[in-house]
Amino acid sequence: MWPYVDAARVSLEQNQDGLFRSRFVFHEVRCRLDGGLVVIFDQRGFFGSDGLAFAISGSPSSDPGSWAGGYAATDPNTNEEIRAFLGKHEVPVSACPLPG
Predict the structure, then answer these.
(1) Strand, coil or helix: what is 72?
(2) How far from chain centre, in Å, is Cα 54?
């Protein structure tokens, strides 16, 4: 599948704060024609769903340090960070170039 989903998940896991840690279950991937990726996860906390979490990388890498992201998003279609990153350059998943 997508070779960088694990790196995106690890990045989110490493950057959590607080006593109760969330689990991140793969939800979907979105991409730009230039290879930039947004990997979206269902964020499942100790008390149930905490919405969505996402990791973004303009140059995806298997290094978790190359990813940025956010937590507790409600809708990837209206999230400002995701929309700004994808902009008008989003392509269907079937047309995503796999990063090098």
Answers:
(1) strand
(2) 3
